[in-house]
Amino acid sequence: MKKLSVTWDGVFDSTGYMFSFAKSLCCAVKNSPFSEAAEDIVASSGFAFRMWVSPDLCPSATSIWQFDGQKSWVESGGISCEYIERMWGQEDVEKERRLAAVEAIRQSIDRGIPAISWDIGVCEWGLIIGYDDAAERFAVLPITGQEEEMDYTLLGKRELPILNVLTLTEKTHKAAEEVVSDALRIVKGHLQGEEWCENASGLAAYPALIKHLEGEDTELACSWNMEYFLGTYAPLKWYAWQFCMRHGLDELAALYQTVFENWQKAFEAKRMRDLATYENRQAVAALLKQAWECEKQAVEKM
Fold this sequence. Notes:
Layout: E1 2-3, H1 20-30, H2 38-44, E2 52-53, H3 70-76, E3 79-86, H4 94-110, E4 115-118, E5 125-132, E6 137-141, E7 148-151, E8 163-171, H5 176-191, E9 200-201, H6 205-214, H7 219-222, H8 224-246, H9 250-272, H10 278-301
Antiparallel strand pairs: 1-5, 2-9, 3-8, 4-5, 4-8, 5-6, 6-7
Helix pairs in contact: 1-2, 2-8, 6-10, 8-9, 9-10
């Protein structure tokens, strides 16, 4: 087994629920020759700002978006990559795409960089960190942190059988100013609902989440699902804040500091307080409403 020494250590995740593609992307860059870009890429690709919320707060909403945007969004942040997918209804190319993905993963690991892949241990994105051609098995690092192994033939054919593999190749010479301007363009588009999604996305995710805290039916407000959504997006806001600070976007940095702090407080309140109590639900809703106002102001400044 040719295997890289990779863990999730050093990847900021204030809740333990950080969106798995963004966390995997950050970790892959952190364990690459261009590790200095690890935190920036989460924001420059737009993922630090993205939100998706389904009406029933089903966790799968965080995995329903335009997957084939991954390559262009990551490359907009100044890192070139290779992307291979196979979606539903493409069974005729299953073997061809899987073999191409296996080869891309081998090449990535040979470059010393883990590969990002969907559904390698749990039904989320994680990292492939090693391969053994003799046994035809991968070493994988799911988002849970428990290293496992997986047969080549299971790639793209597990619990949710789609293929989604992204590998990083090199850092480009794109100027920092261009990275920032392109990031803000992508982010503004997402926040204004211009990216495809079946559920509420961008700024529209706020009222979709808040309504469960203000309604009479408290089941979803009190559910683990609410904790999952708060925990998924809270740490991403930290990357948005840090990106704005690093690149001298002072007004946006001030707004996103408040956004992060409010999402983090909302997550902690969900874990520590009984949201069956009206006052506690209102307190969480108030935190999200303030974050919403900040992000609306941010869009205007973008």
